[in-house]
Specification:
By secondary structure, the protein is an alpha/beta fold. The longest helix is centred in the middle third of the chain and has 17 residues. It is globular and about 55 Å long.
Length: 220
């Protein structure tokens, strides 16, 4: 069984890191079940293992945390649903690339619950939305905005960190970084797309679609 927890209010980032570290250790040791933990953070930037210092455009705007998850700079803040996924990747096939693809599929299925077509892009981890409502880009193609980021770390074949879906964050807060190192695309949110979606709605959709992507662990 996968346990689901939702943190009320705003969760300090340091507390989240400590909680994940402890839970991953317990899952690895067989003392705890897998966990999906839903949180919101205060405004902050995080740097993944591939972060480039030149992509931190405004280092004094919000606190910046170095993490050892994959990826580059990301933003977390109120109005963004962060889903920390502490799952047994070892028991789920030991295929990290496939696991990341499943995380993207989970986001795509969740967005589809609101009739939003999320898409993957080769060489760009995360989930993207084609903006047919905006003018064409300089290359004559439709603009694409990022709606969800994914950054994972694996320890002893247990995952932590996870995904972040933009529900209704302040999109101007992304201006202090080059999100995920990509300069030619913007960011969006469900509310920015004109959808009156709440955090409760997203949480229910995440839980409904989880088992469509992640099968139950086999019985021992």
């Amino acid at each position: 069984m996968v346990e689901w927890l939702r943190a009320e209010g705003i969760t300090p980032y340091e507390f989240a890191l400590q909680t994940m570290e402890a839970r991953v250790a317990d899952i690895s040791a067989g003392r705890a079940e897998e966990l999906i933990w839903l949180v919101e953070h205060p405004p902050l930037y995080t740097a993944g293992t591939s972060a480039r210092i030149e992509d931190l455009k405004d280092p004094d705007r919000f606190p910046v945390y170095d993490t050892r998850r994959g990826g580059q700079y990301t933003y977390h803040g109120p109005g963004q649903r962060v889903a920390y996924a502490m799952l047994d990747v070892g028991a789920r096939g030991r295929d990290v690339r496939d696991f990341v693809a499943k995380m993207e599929d989970w986001v795509i299925r969740t967005l589809a619950e609101f009739n939003v077509k999320g898409e993957k892009r080769e060489g760009r981890v995360g989930v993207w939305v084609v903006r047919h409502d905006k003018p064409l880009g300089p290359d004559g193609k439709p603009v694409e905005d990022k709606i969800a980021a994914i950054g994972l770390r694996i320890r002893r074949w247990v995952s932590f960190h996870g995904l972040a879906i933009n529900v209704e964050p302040d999109l101007s807060h992304f201006d202090g970084i080059v999100p995920c190192g990509i300069t030619e695309h913007g960011v969006t949110s469900l509310v920015d797309l004109g959808l009156p979606v709440t955090m409760d709605d997203v949480d229910l959709a995440l839980k409904r679609t989880f088992k469509d992507v992640f099968a139950d662990l086999p019985e021992l």
